[in-house]
Amino acid sequence: MRFTIAQLEAFFWTVRLGSLGKAAGHLHMSQPTISLRLRDLEQALNVKLFQRNGRGLAPTADALALLPRASALLEEADRIMLQTDPATVTGSIRVGFAEGFAMTCLPRLLETVRTDYPLLKAEFVVSISYELERELSDRRLDLAVLVNPTGRPGMRLVPLGIQDTAWVAGVNWGLRDNVAPAELHRLPIVSNPPRSAMFRQIKDWFATAGIEPLRHDICSSVAVIGHLVSSGAALGVLPVRMMEPDVAAGRVQILRPVPDLIHGRVYASYPEGGLTSPVDAMLKSIQKVLDAIDYLKVDRS
Question: Are residues 153 and 170 in the same domain?
């Protein structure tokens, strides 16, 4: 006999949550029903998926091998169910954005969501990717757009592209376009805190020459860092698109670092099993905006 989506769902949540009782609670059904579906799935696949471990169940090697494939099938089933009229998508969603991304993309995204999903209510949270990833893992966010996420367990990652970043300096510094670590390490640098993608970019770039900047100040806001750089107070690594108005106004210059920076990979992320109608609608809106403004580079690696 064939397995069913209901059986895969019982299997997925039993493994992910660690017990029959928790899976039953999550799926709003009785524990005997979960047990029956797991038994039927084992029979359909002719494998043993769980072993008794004290009072609980432990997934077998076959179960762990099946888990990512089951997750992909369940997500595709969700997508099929979500093929509905955008005007009927209702509810609320809490979405997190890395600040540099939000500075450029959020105005267009607000307009897109209002037009395409008029009944969808969104709350936007802007922070550094590390903090957003933690909130997503704690289920305080439904969806987040992250730069270089660590990839926490139980989170789905959807690659969006590469964010073009560069060293940016006020014209007052009189720097040549091509710069090496030795030419910048004596100048004041400002970045987001440690653990942020920006901080790691800067540390890794200077590490290629075996040196560190003599003055590296920390600021939690990408927007304020952009202001500090355009004011000539410090240098920073920032999204190129975010700084285009300042380049056009003649306040800053985009530097060409040698070696090149490791550019940030941008992902949308949401909890496994969390592809709801609002999340799917927001994912579609984000991709629509990215295509319209050509914000990200294609990742060809």
Answer: no
The Cα–Cα gap between 26 and 14 comes to: 10
Return the H-helix or E-strand segment holding 253: strand 252-254
Q: Is 289 found in the same domain as 241?
A: no
Look up tokens 């999903």; give the residue: 117
Q: Which tokens is 112 given?
A: 């897109």
By the 8 A CB rule, do 293 and 104 touch? yes
In a domain, 298, yes or no: no
Burial class (CB in 10 A: 0-12, 13-18, 19+), 260: exposed
pTM to 2 decimal places? 0.74
52 has a pLDDT exceeding 80: yes
Q: How far apart are CA 95 and CA 291, in angstroms?
A: 19
Question: 112-132, pLDDT tens digit by residue?
Answer: 999 999 999 999 999 999 999
Q: Which residues of 246-259 are buried (b: 16+ CB within 10 A; e: fewer)?
A: beeeebbbbbebee
Q: To 5 degrees, how large is the angle CA 75–CA 122–CA 290?
A: 65
Query: Domain tally for the chain?
Result: 3
- The boundaries of the domain holding residue 201 are 165-257
| Residue 299 lies inside a defined structural domain of this protein | no
Distance CA 236, CA 74 (A): 43
- Chain segment 274-291, per-residue pLDDT in tens: 888 899 999 999 999 999
Residues 111 and 252 in one domain: no
If you count them, how many residues does the chain have?
Answer: 301
pLDDT at 22: 86
